[in-house]
Specification:
By secondary structure, the protein is mainly alpha-helical. It has 12 helices and 2 strands, in the order ββαααααααααααα. It binds iron/sulfur cluster.
Length: 281
Amino acid sequence: MKKTIRGRKRAPAPKRATAVKRATEVKRAAAVKRATVVKRAKRAKTAVAKASAPRRATAGKRAPERRWAESPAALRHRMATILERLEQLYPQAKCSLGHENPLQLLIATILSAQCTDARVNMVTPALFARYPDARAFAEADLGELEEMIRSTGFYHNKARNIIACARELLLRHGGQVPADLESLVALPGIGRKTANVVLGNAFGIPGLVVDTHVTRLANLMFLTAQKDPNKIETDLMEVVPREKWTNLAHLFIEHGRRVCVARRPRCGDCVLHDVCPSSAV
Ligand code: SF4
């Protein structure tokens, strides 16, 4: 042992290094323990805040992530109430795309992607006068068609889809729009939404259309917890009677435009506030 200045005995160098190392480890362990305790406390605080938060305060903030806890029978009953009230409120609700036949509705629905129905209705009278049937659309000059539909946006893709779709109609369906889902979705550029619009509004065959309004309202009302339109369609099919499928979209679209407006739903004026889990009143 070496002697220190004050006469105390000092541990040899390797022993000192070990002692310092141990002290550092002890300090580090204490710091980790403290951090864990703080983290746990924070987590507990958040859980308590979540549990005590009022359930009806999600409107306009973020979409609910799960269904309202209720039995399938209770959900069907609530859905029936929702439909009944909306039917009373919007007895005139119908497809707002101007059309006189299935082909015109098919074309108008293609044009309505990422565009308002009002804008589509400004374009279609001249369009349908210039191209009166599937053959006319199939033989259309791409540039000319693009110019006619330019104001609806995405006009390159829409024009290409319209011409391809019209050619397929000529080739496989004698120039007529088929009245079944499978054949409709097999046409170029036609998805389930467009197919259901055509089935429900041009042929009177129930079709459940899931657009942005239906997606938003169905989630706010806890009728589904899905974001994918096909899954939402399946969920709604379970709780909406078949004969009401077509009208459901009309009603939700009206309500979504007038009362349950995106980002600022007017729950205080809503006839559904007592049957909607997201109601802010
Ligand atoms: S109460 Fe009405 S306005 Fe409010 S979120 Fe529900 S459906 Fe929308």
